[in-house]
Inverse folding.
């Protein structure tokens, strides 16, 4: 049973961004799992159920604590000119920090910037981001877990990644 | 293809899910557009580091607390 604890914690932490909240989610999910009993047809059905319950429990836990509004994400997305080309200063538009080694981006001040950028995302955006990029589920599976269409999941993923990229470029770009 | 169109289909391109004619258009655009080359490189890196930053392990002491919690709950059930 505890083989699932790590996955549940990772997803719960990814959504709630709080270790204490994630721990409560893990406990809640295990209790629900015990109450539900062994009514799963195979491991895939169990995994899918666990992801769904973990996502819902985590989002419920965040309800009321949510600071962000989905509309505010628009401020974090790329801006375009009327002709469809990106708007902004040339230095920002061509800023490329992708050569920075991953270990450097995941440490110190860069890590803090990255964590803050992830925190800025709305909860349900973080949910699809973790399910897709960390748990490496298909778009179909993610859509089923979050109860949305595949198209909506893809849009949310793209918006989340664009918002993250924009924040990272704004704050890391000058160092590249 | 213009920058907005390229960015709209970026995920499909990076996932290899784009039709060949769109791939050709996109790569032709990239050849002449430095901002889009920077965008695609940093977008790809964002996907990688975003996932890596969220890939956290459950602390050992929390695992121990979970075992105790479950033993209490199940033992009392």
């Amino acid at each position: 049973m505890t083989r699932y604890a790590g996955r549940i914690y990772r997803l719960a932490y990814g959504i709630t961004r709080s270790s204490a909240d994630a721990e409560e989610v893990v406990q809640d999910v295990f209790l629900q799992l015990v109450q539900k009993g062994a009514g799963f047809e195979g491991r895939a059905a169990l995994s899918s159920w666990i992801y769904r319950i973990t996502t819902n429990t985590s989002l419920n836990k965040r309800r009321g604590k949510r600071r962000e509004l989905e509309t505010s994400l628009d401020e974090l997305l790329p801006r375009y000119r009327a002709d469809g080309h990106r708007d902004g200063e040339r230095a920002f538009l061509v800023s490329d920090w992708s050569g920075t080694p991953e270990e450097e981006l995941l440490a110190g001040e860069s890590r803090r910037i990255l964590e803050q950028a992830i925190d800025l995302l709305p909860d349900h955006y973080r949910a699809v981001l973790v399910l897709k990029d960390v748990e490496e589920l298909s778009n179909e599976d993610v859509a089923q877990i979050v109860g949305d269409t595949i198209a909506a999941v893809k849009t949310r993923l793209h918006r989340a990644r664009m918002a993250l990229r924009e924040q990272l470029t704004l704050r890391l770009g000058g160092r590249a | 293809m213009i920058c907005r169109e390229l960015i709209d289909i970026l995920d499909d391109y990076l996932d290899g899910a784009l039709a060949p004619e769109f791939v050709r258009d996109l790569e032709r655009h990239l050849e002449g557009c430095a901002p889009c080359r920077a965008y695609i490189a940093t977008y790809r890196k964002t996907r990688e580091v975003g996932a890596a930053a969220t890939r956290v392990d459950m602390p050992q002491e929390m695992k121990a607390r979970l075992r105790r919690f479950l033993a209490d709950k199940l033992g009392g059930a």
Observations:
- DSSP finds five helices and no strands in chain B.
- Helices of chain B lie at 3-8, 10-14, 20-32, 34-54, 60-76.
- Residues 3-76 of chain B form one domain.
- The longest helix of chain B spans residues 34-54.
